[in-house]
Design goal:
The complex is a heterotrimer.
Chain A (H helix, E strand, L loop, with lengths): L8 H16 L6 H27 L7 H15 L5 H23 L4 H21 L1 H4 L5 E2 L7 H27 L2 H11 L1 H6 L4 H27 L1 E2 L1 H4 L2 H14 L6 H19 L4 H15 L4 H20 L1
Antiparallel strand pairs in A: 1-2
Helix pairs in contact in A: 2-7, 2-10, 2-12, 2-13, 3-4, 3-5, 3-10, 4-10, 7-10, 8-10, 12-13
Chain B lengths: L4 E12 L2 E12 L3 E5 L6 H9 L6 E6 L2 E2 L5 H7 L1 E3 L12 H10 L9 H15 L14 H14 L4 E5 L7 H17 L3 E5 L3 H7 L2 E6 L2 E6 L1 H6 L1 H8 L1 H9 L3
Helix pairs in contact in B: 3-4, 3-5, 4-5, 9-10
Chain C lengths: L1 H27 L8 H19 L7 H26 L2 H23 L14 E4 L2 E4 H23 L1 H11 L1 H6 L4 H23 L10 H15 L4 H21 L5 H15 L13
Antiparallel strand pairs in C: 1-2
Helix pairs in contact in C: 1-5, 1-8, 1-9, 1-10, 2-3, 2-4, 2-8, 2-9, 3-4, 3-8, 5-6, 5-8, 6-8, 9-10, 9-11, 10-11
Classes of the chains: A mainly alpha, B alpha/beta, C mainly alpha.
Chain lengths: 322, 255, 289
């Protein structure tokens, strides 16, 4: 039982086929679609990262995008001073971990409400610092990454596969965590924090650790994003809409499942593209209405609803066969 | 530390505003004890439990467990030291199966044994068999009856491998036959697993039948400690439960 | 000079207190973090603006229709959108729902008024008052006074009237309140609607001195968080402390580092407070140890 309760060999086959198709895509479709899919992968990564908190500890870091911005900016600042990508990315990770510890330890002690709001403030504060430290960050002018010497098609493909790889990595990390001792700890925190503590679980430690993992994944995504775009500014990478959409994707696909956030990301991004191109003036409103509908009618997310439905059909099928 | 004394509670007090919920309580629990804690509602029994386990932190006095001063410890540190507890209103881990609940106990708990998931599964099996939950290992919490939820809570807390187990009104809400089952289970835990037990209880026959000793609380103060037989006759106890006049009448009748 | 700045900060603090009161009521009593609070403030401003320009209603008075309309809107939003999510239990879902409301509100306002900045200019706008040798814009003083009165009225309502006390009872002990016949869910709904009305009044008052547009909604939400965190939740004194503190911080910040750092300063102060003293400067209830 890796991915969901009702899986069997057909699930693995299905996923294998999808992965194969995705690998071949860049040579089949146009550059626009390659870039679109790359952004879908990126959101899947962000959704999985935030689901580590929402679906497992039950805490909702609304401002998780702060790590995306920290990743993008730290890597950007270092690379524009001659650093290579990977060392730059590693330093960004350290920054994010530092912020998690300093901010997480006091605030995670409190109830979920407070944490959610506090992270919004955290993001705002760090964004404001980035905006105002013009000497370091270029202020409102943003940061330019050293461009890669590649033709556009190859560039698109490069980042396509990097983001896809990140997405798969995030899923693997999720799978490892769920079945580990760490996974039991965070799941029990979500179920009943007081009971978890009475069993010997240091809940603050596990909440913070969970947040650190979430932050690191988000930070790496930010670093890659900056490198991909070659240019970033504070309003892009510290935009609260980025974490809010990742939360909506988790909601849509199903929190606490392996595939849920990924499926949510795919559906949401593709839907968003359609709405953006057709209904630009109603974009926000339609997003809002869709969110309301999902919350009111599919509250546990599509994956759970779907697997329950599939499970129900399989059971009925077996009964009829007998 | 005296050989045999597991828990040493001295001058334990706490007050909430002007109310002294626990007032200068001192007692010891010896290794292997099956100690009952009784008293009228509001006497402070659960509060004592909460003070020992760190659920309430503003403790006055001291709590020493096996040479370790655990006063003011957080609940997780208390659990790691070797004290487990159940809750009056059970707190199962919702969203996790029975087996996963018990495994969580086995995975954490006492500090010297961070275990692997495989080892924990085995320990959980032992706990579940002892408490009769093994057949329900894959059920989700929502599918359990009230006595099953209590068995789950017991299984989970003994899976943490405690030396001292604190029970908070385990019998509440059980039918008479279920009470008998619970009693024999508690005795088995105490005798076969060598777990010392301090249990709060309202169901008198339960307390009287299995306790080695009983401690009686009233208005936050410890009023009497002794064997079941001694407690039954003690005028202070009778007064606490039934009122002064009744107590006077009983002693007047020479009982 | 310093005195004038501080006094201005204090006046601003009055408005901030009003802002914070509505948000804090919704959070502290109804238990809802209303992410559409900023949008509601701006909508209140727009409604007043329309009453002012189209119907020539006096600037401060135009806050009243805004309050009434937002009160009704708040009731509807709570009844049809928020209450179903509360029943399902997860606070995070309710939070997202308020965010969805914000998205719809913003889109709605963009469609009608676009993102242009508006402001209510009136004959009062240029008056000034001389006080202790400093120059005080009359409107700011008026806004402070009105805010003060409004907050006091809310306080009276909550502590002296029957519905107000019923609301407090519902927050402190829902089961007990139900037991004595209070319709707790309706109390939460009314409380939420009151919060929305307060938001509208605050937005409407602010529109007399500041240009506003939909674009500002997010920033307003940020400010109101800072006020709530600084002061602690659920009580008016907290909102007052948070509001005045923020007002002074912003005024003094404008003097020392420049007004552009306004928003940043507020957020940084909030983060520092959260790290050092998460309960806020007063701090009550709703905490875990």
């Amino acid at each position: 039982m890796i991915l969901s309760k009702n899986e069997n060999k057909w699930t693995y086959l299905g996923i294998g086929i999808v992965l194969l198709v995705l690998v071949l895509m860049p040579w089949i479709i146009s550059g626009y679609w390659v870039r679109l899919l790359t952004s879908v992968f990126m959101f899947a990564v962000l959704a999985k990262a935030i689901d580590l908190m929402i679906g497992y500890t039950g805490y909702v870091p609304f401002g998780n995008v702060v790590f995306f911005g920290l990743g993008a900016y730290t890597t950007g600042i270092l690379m524009s001073r001659g650093w290579l990508f990977i060392p730059g990315m590693l330093i960004s990770i350290l920054m994010s971990v530092f912020v998690c510890i300093v901010f997480g330890l006091p605030v995670l002690r409190l109830r979920g409400h407070y944490f959610a709001v506090a992270t919004i403030g955290l993001n705002g504060a760090i964004m404001a610092i980035a905006l105002n430290a013009t000497g370091l960050t270029g202020g409102a002018m943003g940061i330019i990454f050293p461009p890669l010497a590649m033709n556009p098609a190859a560039l698109n493909r490069l980042f396509y596969f990097i983001m896809m790889g990140l997405m798969i990595l995030a899923a693997v990390i999720n799978i490892i965590i769920v079945r580990s001792r760490f996974g039991f700890a965070i799941r029990s925190i979500k179920s009943n924090e007081e009971a978890a503590r009475s069993l010997g679980i240091n809940t603050t430690f596990y909440k913070t650790s969970s947040w650190i993992i979430s932050a690191v994944i988000t930070s790496v995504a930010g670093s890659v994003y900056g490198w991909w775009m070659s240019y970033i500014s504070t309003v892009d990478v510290f935009n609260i809409m980025i974490s809010v959409t990742s939360i909506l994707m988790v909601l849509l696909g199903g929190a606490g499942t392996i595939l849920g956030p990924i499926i949510g990301a795919f559906i949401f991004q593709l839907l968003s593209e359609v709405i953006w191109s057709q209904f630009l003036t109603f974009h926000l409103g339609i997003l809002g209405v869709i969110t309301m509908l999902v919350i009111l009618f599919v509250p546990r997310g599509l994956v759970v609803g779907f697997t329950d439905w599939i499970g129900g059909r399989l059971k009925r099928g077996k009964k009829e066969a007998v | 530390m005296n050989n045999g004394t597991l828990l040493d509670v001295t001058n334990l007090s706490v007050h909430f505003g002007a109310l002294k919920a626990v007032d200068d309580v001192t007692f010891q629990v010896k290794r292997g004890d099956l100690l009952g804690l009784i008293g009228p509602n509001g006497a402070g029994k659960t509060t004592i439990l909460n003070l020992i386990t760190g659920t309430i932190r503003k403790t006055q006095g001291s709590v020493v467990f096996k040479d370790l001063n655990i006063t003011g410890y957080t609940p997780d540190k208390v659990a790691k030291a070797g004290i487990a507890r159940t809750f009056q209103i059970t707190k199962p881990l919702i969203g996790m199966s029975v087996e996963e609940n018990v495994m969580t106990g086995a995975l954490f708990g006492r500090a010297h044994r961070p275990s692997s998931v495989r080892v924990a599964r085995e320990k959980a099996r032992v706990s579940m068999e002892l408490t009769g939950m093994i057949g329900k290992r894959n059920l989700s919490v929502g599918q359990l009856t009230v006595p099953d939820r209590k068995r789950l809570e017991l299984a989970r807390s003994i899976a943490t491998d405690p030396e001292l187990l604190l029970l908070d009104e385990v019998m509440a809400g059980l039918q008479p036959t279920e009470v008998d089952e619970a009693l024999s289970l508690i005795k088995r835990i105490n005798e076969d697993m060598n777990i010392t037990i301090l249990f709060i209880e309202h169901v008198m026959r339960a307390v009287m039948s299995i306790s080695m000793r009983i401690m009686v609380l009233n208005y936050g103060k410890k009023i009497v400690e002794g064997t079941p037989a001694e407690i039954a006759k003690d005028p202070l106890v009778i007064e606490a439960y039934l009122g002064k006049k009744y107590a006077q009448r009983r002693t007047a009748d020479g009982q | 000079m310093l005195f004038e700045i501080a006094l201005n900060g204090l006046l601003l603090g009055g408005l901030y207190t009003l802002m914070g009161t509505g948000f804090s009521l919704q959070w502290g009593i109804s238990g809802i973090i209303n992410l559409s609070y900023g949008g509601m403030m701006v909508l209140g401003a727009y409604i007043s603006y329309q009453f002012f320009t189209l119907l020539s209603v006096q600037p401060i008075i135009s806050a009243i229709p805004a309050a009434i309309i937002m009160f009704l809107l708040g009731m509807a939003v709570y009844r049809f959108l928020l209450r179903p999510t509360i029943k399902k239990g997860s606070f995070f879902v309710t939070l997202i729902m308020t965010f969805a409301v914000e998205l719809v509100l913003e889109n709605f306002m963009l469609l009608i008024w676009a993102s242009d900045y508006r402001i209510i200019s009136s004959p009062y706008s240029n008056l000034a008052v001389e006080l202790f040798e400093t120059h005080l814009p009359f409107v700011k003083a008026l806004i402070f006074a009105v805010s003060f009165v409004a907050v006091y009225l809310v306080h009276l309502f909550m502590s002296k009237t029957k519905p107000g006390k019923a609301i407090q009872a519902s927050a402190l002990n829902p089961d007990g309140a139900r037991f004595i016949g209070i319709n707790v869910e309706r109390m939460y709904m009314i409380n939420f609607a009151i919060g929305c009305a307060i938001a509208a009044v605050a937005g409407s008052l602010a529109s007399n001195t500041n240009a506003f547009s939909v674009v500002l909604a997010g920033g307003l939400l940020g400010k109101v968080f800072v006020i709530a965190v600084l002061g602690g939740l659920g009580n008016i004194w907290g909102a007052a402390l948070g509001g005045i503190t923020l007002g002074l911080v912003e005024a003094l910040g404008a003097l020392t580092v420049g007004p552009e750092y306004n928003e940043a300063l507020g957020l940084v102060v909030m983060v520092i407070v959260l790290v050092l003293r998460p309960r806020g400067l007063i701090g009550r209830r709703f905490w875990d140890v």
